[in-house]
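Revision sheet: structure tokens.
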Amino acid sequence: MRRTVEIDDSLLKDAQRLLSATGISDTIDLALREVLQRSRLERLRQSLGKMKFGISPEELIGLRNTE
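Predicted:
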């Protein structure tokens, strides 16, 4: 779908670099897909709620440090 929009050049340049995009359309497409994916992942995370692992944060840190 063809659109005419004004985009801040510095934002576009930064987004192209971060997304490794080749052109303006590619950058916008990738950015929109990223926003949608993050939103879906956040909704999934919230729907799963919190889980109890039966381990304290201190014990978890201790397990990380045993490598």
